[in-house]
Amino acid sequence: MEEINYLLFQSVLGITFIAAAAYLVFFVSQNKKIRKIARMILLVSGVLQTLHIASRFILAGHTPITSQHEAVVFFAWATTWAYLSFRWRYTVKNFGTFVSIFISCLLLISSLSSREFSPLLPALQSIWLPIHAGVSIIAYGFLSLAFCGGLMYLLQERELKSKKFGYFFSRFPSLDALDQLNNHCLTAGFVFLTLGIVTGSVWARQAWGTYWHWDPKETWSLITWFVYLVQLHQRYTVGWRGKRAAVMAIVGFASIVFTLWGVTYLLGGVHSYAK
Amino acid sequence: MPSEKILLLGVNHKTTPVEIREKIALSGGYEEPLAAMKNIQGLREYYLLSTCNRVELLLVTEAESNVEAAIVDFLFGGRVPRDECPQYLYMLYDKEAVHHLFMVAASLDSMVVGEAQILGQLKEAYRYAAHFGCTGPLLNKLLHKSFSVAKRVRTETAIGSSAVSISYAAVQLAKKIFGNLEDKNVLLVGAGEMAELAAEHLVGNGVGSVTVANRTLARAVDLAQCFKGKAVAMEELVAQLEHVDIIISSTGATEIILHKDEVKSVMRARMNRPLFFIDIAVPRDLDPRLNELDNVYLYDIDDLSSVVEVNKSERDKEAVKATRIVDEETLKFERWFLGLAVTPTIQALKEKMDGIVQLELDRTLARMPDVTDADRENLSRMVTAITAKILHDPLMYLKSESCAGRDNSDLKVTTVRELFGLQKGDNEKPS
After folding, report:
1. Which of A174, A231, A244 has the highest number of chain B CBs within 10 A, making it the mutation to test binding with B?
2. What number is the ipTM of this complex?
3. What's the CA angle centered on B195, arms B192 and B199, to 5 degrees?
4. Do A105 and A40 belong together in one domain?
5. Are A93 and A154 contained in the same domain?
6. Which of A218, B189, B260, B346 is the most buried (most CB within 10 A)?
7. Is B134 among the residues known to form the active site?
């Protein structure tokens, strides 16, 4: 089983890189046939990631989200499926290139950290683990799509404002498409993030007897939540859209990254991953 | 020669200044003029196209008729002195007429070469003409052919997709900002030709509505009618910004007419929905600092030209290719048209029958060595008589006058040609 798990991870890594490379070739050549192939490869990568996580679940005996490596793999998995589910509904031109590179980066990071299995504290042995962690990670998946969209928006907006049309101009989708992508991903991500925090506090009540005890990760999740709340609220009340929304998506994502890594390494707490 | 001639006459943006075109543009729709044309003697088939930039009549008349004077009177309706008419009008016959029609349909004669709107207008005009029974077999064929020529040009050349002009650039930019233009509204400020052109191009790309603001309201109303839009006064400019998305400005004003602060306050009311300003006026109408506002994009004429410049040579190449297609299709149509005539059909029919008879006769006689010369004579006379009697009815059918007054010899020719398999000189089937 360990070998299978190992092989699965290596193939996930390889295939995702190939998908990103194919998307890059498509980005340069704009050949639609290549895009089709790239999509298929990414879909295969998504399936393999699912199998890999399943095999790790069997090996560990609990949801594999307790180590740094596992969390990032889960993150990549959520981003992949968020993108694939999203793509199923509508296309945003050349978005896949950015997302597949982003997923590759995540997998690369996960491959660098220890793949040891870490035993789970008895207090954490609960059905809430997969629910709380899963929902939170899915939120991260959608929010990182918003981050990719925000980056593209800023690049495209700069070309339109400066009236100097470079390499990206014709390859990027319209500003409106990117803004809508931002809106959809933020809305979906925000709903999951809220669920993640709610399930977390319910679980905390069961495990430790209080809903909230200002663990650094909880604090930072709350900060992240507020960043997105402000953005959504402002969009619907005074129309924060376009550049400001894109910047907010990037700020929110920075906050996520800090919640995911910064907290573990700098602040510690019950959420810290085993090292 | 065919018994009828094709005649095309009209005015367009190249030959006629807008003041004259305004006098003849048929704003009342197609019904009225088409009905009026019914009273002109000598027209077999006719059709009328009226757009912002052109009014054209396509007529099929008897070969020796003289309807030109009556048509010119009809077109100008006495509003232009008669001796001035010829300088504005172009009049084309047969092959040139067909060529011109194809050029128009393929959007090679348009103000914005390659714009797609003209084909839709052509189809609409044809629908009206067909609905009122003005078209016949020849025009049906000709107009359908023009649609397919337009389609061919569109698919085989990049004339429709390569950057064609400044207005094309404006559309490209608008698409990059708004994505879908269908629910977007355009505001024309000032009624210059360039602005009109850009608006036309945007409408061709599916923009929702057009509003025109102009210092003289009457001109605004006229222009708005062209786009089925509404007219507003210049004073309403800032208020209108709340409802529109693309603003094309081309007034003759010497001062800046819209300042940054005015737009800034509008953006709040718009919930920051993007605004795209196109300033094609010289000197400029719009505050250059508008571009500093979030979600506001301002392009002046120089910015647009720099976008277009790159693509000009590309476009010229495509236009040459498109013109070649039109030439080719004109030639094909001409061949079909000439083949239509009754006389050559009779000729061909006779030749074909004689050929068959002679062949069979020779074959039979070759197998009967002991037939006398007199018998040969008799046999040959017999088969000739049979041929003549067989051909009698088809020929009568071809030559007969039709009773309803409308000539349908084209239809008959087509029928006979198909029935007897006389498709020479044209390898495509008449539709």
Report:
1. A174
2. 0.84
3. 140
4. yes
5. no
6. B189
7. no
